[in-house]
Amino acid sequence: MKQIYPLRLIRYVVAIAILCLAVFGLHVFFHSKTLPTYEAPMTPVRVTKPEIGTIEKSIVFSGHVEADAMIPVVPLVQGTLLDYFIEEGSKVEKDQVLAKIDDEVFKSQLAQAKAAYLAYESSYKRVSELNKIGAATDQELDTLTAQRDASKAQLELAELQLSYSEVKAPVSGTVLKNMKHKGDIATNTAPMAVIADLDKLEVNLQIPEKYFALFNEEKREMEITITRPTDGATSTAHIISVAPYIDGKSKTFALKLGIDNPELFRPGMYIKASIVYDKLENSYILPQKLRKPEGSMYAVVDGKALYINENIEFENNEYFLVPKGYENSLFIVDGQNTVLDGESVSILED
Q1: Helix (H, G, I), strand (E, B), or coil: what is residue 331?
Q2: Cα separation of 300 and 345, whole Å?
Q3: Are 236 and 224 in contact (CB under 8 A)?
Q4: Contacts of 307 (CB under 8 A, 6+ apart)
Q5: How confident is the model at residue 16 (pLDDT cuts 50, 70, 90)?
Q6: Which stretch of DSSP H or E encloses residue 51?
Q7: Please, which pLDDT band fits residue 13 given cuts at 50, 70 and 90?
Q8: CA 157 from chain center: how many Å?
Q9: 179 pLDDT exceeds 50?
Q10: Cα(50)–Cα(72) distance, rounded to whole angstroms?
């Protein structure tokens, strides 16, 4: 029995020693191991560089094409249309015969007027010879002279009316409207057709009052483009006139434009007129989409975002002039709404 206790004691000592070694080993293991440190990922951004370009300030208005002058073809005498040569869209020359009115009545009137004139002319000559020898009074000669002159005027009127039976084009141009047909009755109170010179087309715009000073500045140069929205056909235009007053009811003023390439347009067409009133060329510009709603933007300098909020000297809806000193900087175009000033960023490659 006396040998058992020392054996147990030895076992306890060995167990405690093993436990201490295990604890010490674990302590050394965990304290010698290097723990990883967390690093937040850099915000990815896409950047762009300023480019040399042009910024235009412009305003756009809508309107309709009109002819410089729309001339009605009105017959000067009344009668039945025996011939009618007018077709919409056809080109006509000044004094070209467009229609013929039944002229039998006018021929008859001309024959009567001619007979009356010849009779008075014969009587005038006879009485004039008698007056020279004292066989006819001056009063008789004066009376016949007046009658002869009146009959001559009637003859000339009958000739003129007969010539009016041929309806001629008052101007050169294109027939826009055809209002009669062969067999219709022509009168001098209703037009038969409407002719316009399609080589002289214009646009009349109503411009809001706030632009009045802009269009009335002396020597202001403006680039004007007329566009046909249906297919995008365009033409340059020029200012014909600017109304010198503002309409009190509509608070607008009239602006008349002349179309430089009228062959692309026709009266009545709906168009849009873009008027460039100021321009900045050969300058460093950037798209407006890289600016935040309040107008600020971010550049990337040494791998970090740089907050920029400066006054823009010149801009339009699409582009703005790069602030001075940043012409060669990189600007964040995608990701500017998620970065902070001074934050490290990673640039995405396109």
Answers
A1: strand
A2: 8
A3: yes
A4: 296, 298, 340, 341
A5: confident
A6: strand 51-67
A7: low
A8: 51
A9: yes
A10: 58
Residues paired with 238 in a beta bridge: 258
Spatial contact of 174 and 91, defined as CB atoms under 8 Å apart: yes
Query: Phi, psi (5° rounding) for residue 329?
Result: -85, 160
For residue 81, the Cα-to-chain-centroid distance in whole angstroms is: 43
Q: Which of helix, strand or coil describes residue 313?
A: coil
- pLDDT per residue over 233-272, tens digit each? 999 999 999 999 999 999 999 999 999 999 999 999 999 9
User: Taking Cα atoms as reference points, which of 331, 311, 309, 317 lies closest to residue 288?
Assistant: 317
Q: Are strands 270-287 and 297-301 parallel, antiparallel or unpaired?
A: unpaired
What percentage of the chain exceeds 70 in pLDDT? 89
**Which residue type sits at 223?**
E
> Quick check: 32 and 173 in contact, CB under 8 A?
no
Q: Please give the DSSP secondary-structure letter assigned to residue 342.
A: T
Query: Do 262 and 315 form a contact (C-beta atoms < 8 A)?
Result: no
Six-digit token string for 302: 């040494």
- The helix, strand and coil proportions of the chain, stated in percent and rounded to the nearest 5, come to 30, 35, 35
Residue 1 pLDDT more than 50? Answer: no
Does pTM surpass 0.70? Answer: no
